[in-house]
Hints:
It is a single chain. The protein is an alpha+beta fold. It is built from two helices and two strands; from the N terminus they run αβαβ. Strands 1-2 form a two-stranded parallel sheet. Helix 2 links the parallel strand 1 and strand 2.
Amino acid sequence: MRSALQLAAALVGSEDQPxxxxxxxxxxxxxxxxxxxxxSIVLGSLPPG
Length: 49
């Protein structure tokens, strides 16, 4: 549910122009969904420790 809300918020924030905003996530499935919507994806990673 939270992933859907994050993606929806990003769509609103990009004013329905997802190519204008990078989408940063740690979740591979969410990245796939955002990619399908047209966002450029930045896969983050947590620091060790």
